[in-house]
Amino acid sequence: MDAPSFLTGQFLLAMPGMGDPRFEHAVIAMCSHDEHGALGIGLGATVDGLGFHDLLDSFSIEHGAAPNAPVHFGGPCEPRRGFVIHSSDWDGGDTVDVAGCWSLSTTVDVLRAIASGTGPSRWTVALGYAGWGEGQLEGELVRPGWLNVACDQKLLFETPAAERWTRGFSAAGVDPRLLVTGSGNA
């Protein structure tokens, strides 16, 4: 029997016509996936009118030299919960290594470190996450809804949110303009 294939450290790209408007053009960084379920952070859309400085202000943290980067819509689960996906050159008490591709932190310590200039060299912030229960993601992967692609540091840290979906498909050798929203019958 083959070992299960898990997607931790990869990206999920929403296929056109997947049927869930919350995930239209979604790019999800898979932070955890095992036999018990999965958790990913959406990086394909930003929250209108909310920047990193607003998050710092909500915790009474001085901005320091931190840029007012966009805050991403991480997913529909717990939309007020914050996540920082970052390079592995910083490690806080709660930091989790994600398959050697990036790190994930969820406490205010990483916000303070970024603002003070002592945090990770590359980072992105999101509110909320996408979550799947046991076997749920595997069920979705057998239907035409998601394409998984390998870890890509440029896609994660150097590509603007509005371009991630298209660039993710291009990196996988797929022209998203040629994708259709339905399937046919033979």
TrEMBL record:
Record-linked PANTHER family: UNCHARACTERIZED PROTEIN YQGE, UPF0301 PROTEIN YQGE
Coiled coil start-end: none
Family: Belongs to the UPF0301 (AlgH) family.
One term under GO cellular component: cytosol
HAMAP family assigned to the protein according to its UniProt record, in alphabetical order: UPF0301 (MF_00758)
Signal sequence, start to end: none
Name of the protein this chain belongs to: UPF0301 protein FHS94_002168
